[in-house]
TrEMBL record:
One of its GO terms (biological process) is carboxylic acid metabolic process. Its EC number is 4.1.1.28. The keyword Lyase applies. Belongs to the group II decarboxylase family. InterPro entries: Aromatic_deC, PyrdxlP-dep_de-COase, PyrdxlP-dep_Trfase, PyrdxlP-dep_Trfase_major, PyrdxlP-dep_Trfase_small. Its cofactor is pyridoxal 5'-phosphate. Gene3D superfamilies: Aspartate Aminotransferase, domain 1, Type I PLP-dependent aspartate aminotransferase-like (Major domain). GO terms for molecular function: aromatic-L-amino-acid decarboxylase activity; pyridoxal phosphate binding. Pfam families: Pyridoxal_deC. This is Aromatic-L-amino-acid decarboxylase.
Length: 466
């Protein structure tokens, strides 16, 4: 076959037919995901061998490509969107966001500049304003849509580095860190690994930090904070991945403000609690920080590749992330140019997914999602405790830590539960104790899912009992 004939053969199916096929397959997946096992069967794992062949010379018809993806691929997915996946802090994907994401993919917009995609830039503006409003943040915040909280932590800490060093007369973007005044970074013992990674990428050093001890809930002990000054960045947390608890932001922000230090919040999932005014004992003071990192793809339940960075003054983030120094000389632009706020240049229009979730849920819907998932976490804790198992954390949010007795016993229960596939929970070690962690973060989880999963947990524990 000639080269161009071979290429033609690869596009036999008309686009309309192909997209309808994709729609039907996706619908079938979404409709069945709730009732299938959460884990991946051995058979499905073996089925992945179908993909392990060499690259063919001649391309395949697009419909055949899709058929292969669905037939061997769909069964090998972990059913994280089904409502009974409680591992890590995962969340599902609201139907409105899947649909908006599809249409956006068809647009194939480059969200780099306003002129490469006016719609992407506009919806980013709108979504940022809505998020700021939802969290009760100041009006002049700047922000950007990045891949996840890892990159949001990176971008926010780059802004912090810029702000502190420029005040000391050092242009870190131009000159780098060699010869710069030294910055101190304060973290807690419970700081997320992605904050450490961001510090390493920024030349601030993973290990060059002051580590503040934490209490029984993993909260920073304010009394053990070092003296703060204008050369210090303090990294605090909204939502400990184990206990769900928050650092005492009010007091830390007060001390930092007085000293001229910068406070950065890693709120990958927990920051969304700011949308629910009923849990303001936890969220108190977080709006006083200088920068925030959060995820859309966890508690807000939008598809993956959706993180958000927010910085108190837009100009600070822009100075740290701008594509070129010349742009800065132009002074304040009237319109936000997306590429000047992110580590990336070309990227997908990920702000659309978040805009869709917020419009679909509304202010009350976000608060209700937070309330419901926290209530379910409480139900898990109560149910397990009533059956005689020990809850290791005060369930302040949506995370539950349970011990089924000895470390071996707890591990055995986790393994059994995972193999059975009715629900899925992971293991963790909390303050030296082996625990099973239950994270309730999906919009799709129902009362019935909680009851079914609770029964499965108790059954697994009884079966594993010596
Ligand atoms: C998940 C998480 C992160 C990292 O977020 P990604 O979206 O995986 O990059 C950072 N901090 C906390 C507290 C998290 O839960």
């Amino acid at each position: 076959m000639k080269l161009d004939e071979s290429v033609k053969a690869a596009s036999l199916t008309p686009t309309a037919e192909l997209l309808q096929d994709a729609g039907q397959r996706a619908l079938a997946y979404v409709q069945s995901v709730h009732d299938r096992p959460v884990n991946v069967s051995t058979q499905a794992l073996q089925g992945l061998n179908a993909f392990r062949h060499s690259l063919p010379d001649a391309g395949l018809d697009a419909r055949e490509v899709l058929r292969r993806l669905d037939e061997a691929g769909s069964p090998a997915t972990v059913a994280t969107t089904g409502g009974r996946y409680f591992g890590l802090v995962i969340g599902g994907a609201l139907p409105a966001t899947i649909a908006a994401n599809w249409l956006t993919t068809a647009w194939d917009q480059n969200a780099c500049f306003r002129w490469t995609s006016p719609i992407a830039a506009t919806l980013e503006d709108v979504a940022l304003r809505w998020i700021g409003d939802l969290f009760g943040l100041p009006d002049d915040i700047g922000g950007a849509f990045v891949t996840g909280a890892s990159m949001a932590n990176f971008a926010a800490l780059a802004a912090a580095r810029h702000a502190l060093l420029s005040r000391l007369g050092w242009d870190v973007e131009a000159k780098g860190l060699y010869g710069a005044p030294e910055l101190r970074v304060v973290v807690s013992k419970e700081t997320h690994v992605t904050v450490s990674k961001a510090l390493s990428m920024l030349g601030l050093g993973r290990e060059r930090v002051i580590v503040v001890p934490t209490d029984h809930q993993g909260r920073m002990r304010v009394s053990e904070l070092p003296e703060l000054d204008e050369q210090t960045i303090v990294c605090i947390q909204a939502g400990n991945v184990n206990t769900g608890d928050f650092d005492p932001a009010r007091e830390i922000c007060r001390l930092a403000r007085k000293a001229g230090a910068w406070v950065h919040v890693d709120g990958a999932f927990g920051l969304w609690a700011l949308a629910n005014r009923q849990i303001d004992t936890l969220t108190d003071g977080f709006a006083e920080a200088d920068s925030w990192a959060t995820d859309g793809h966890k508690w807000l339940n939008v598809p993956y590749d959706n993180g958000i960075v927010l910085v108190r003054r837009a100009a600070t983030l822009r100075a740290a992330m701008s594509l070129n120094a010349a742009y800065l000389a132009e002074g304040d632009a009237t319109e936000r140019e997306p590429s000047h706020y992110t580590p990336e240049s070309s990227r997908r229009a990920r702000g659309v997914d978040i805009w869709a979730a917020l419009l679909n849920l509304g202010r009350d819907g976000v608060a209700a999602l937070v309330e419901r998932t926290c209530r379910y976490a409480g139900m898990f804790a109560q149910g397990l405790e009533a059956s005689g198992y020990e809850i290791l954390n005060h369930v302040a949010l949506n995370q539950v830590l349970v011990s089924f007795g000895t470390p071996e016993m707890t591990r055995a229960v986790i393994n059994r539960l995972q193999a059975e596939g009715i629900c899925w929970c992971g293991g963790t070690v909390w303050q030296g104790r082996v625990a099973m962690r239950i994270s309730v973060s999906s919009w799709a989880t129902t009362d019935a899912d909680v009851q079914t999963s609770l029964r499965a947990m108790i059954r697994a524990a009884e079966t594993c009992a010596p």
